[in-house]
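Predict structure. Input: Threonine/serine dehydratase, 313 residues.
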Amino acid sequence: MEIEKSHLEKVLERIKPHIHRTPVLSSTLINEMLETNIWFKCENFQKMGAFKMRGATNAILNLPEEKKLKGVVTHSSGNFAQALSLAAKSLNVPAYIVMPDSAPEVKKAAVRTYEGKITECPSTLKDREETAYKIQEETGATFVHPSNDLDVILGQGTAAMELLQDYPDLDFIICPVGGGGLIAGTALAVKFFGNKCKCIGGEPIEVNDAWRSLKSGKIETNESANTIADGLKTQLGDQNFPIILENVEEIIRVSEEEIRAALRLIWERMKIIVEPSSAVALAAVIKEKDRFKNKNIGIIISGGNVDLNRLPF
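Output follows.
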């Protein structure tokens, strides 16, 4: 399908009653420190604490009524599990969530709070996919991928769309890259609603598959997943990668130390709780400070679901 501006506009209208229009914050101190102007789109204040509520809601709303009755299923260890559960609950649709048995208890508890029906399995991708497929067969539920689904991608793009409505003259919008749903949606919003704006991704060096994929022109995988940014360990898919390849200007890689420093800066100076994945975008701006000097920058703060028992400081 050829994606057009009107598709994103319709998605925002569709999901608007079911999501928060999140605030945009700025920090005089951070702006002075970096000699730039940054506007933070705070999806940590979204329902269930992350941008993923947008895509999950759009995916469910777009289902025919007969499919809604049978429910939705996904595999996720974190934010998308919560997002699909809450979106489904608010729309009276059953949600079946496949979670690795190694997922933190706090995340399983959150899914249960939103009435998602959890099935645990070993943590390999193969086990997750097979378990989700089995549930599909048994229940007739529709599978919704956390990041490699066009309805999800368009839903995630509405965060940047709202940001550009508020600040139409941004030079860059920067967001973290994990499974690729957020950056693909953001890139589409920038393409259709930006005024000379460019979309850039931030990615941990430890899981730099998207950076390598952009270089090679094909989807690369990671050997390790050794990063504090636990929301960014997943890889790109065949739905979002072509969008990223065509519309993302660049991906900037940052070290674990740089992510921790950016995370601490946001917590200390902006007084808001964000998860490590969210700090990756600011870490990218700090790393390339000279390049972004005197520019107008939008940063998507992707979420604020932090395991307080595992803080890095």
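The first strand starts at residue 24 and ends at 25.
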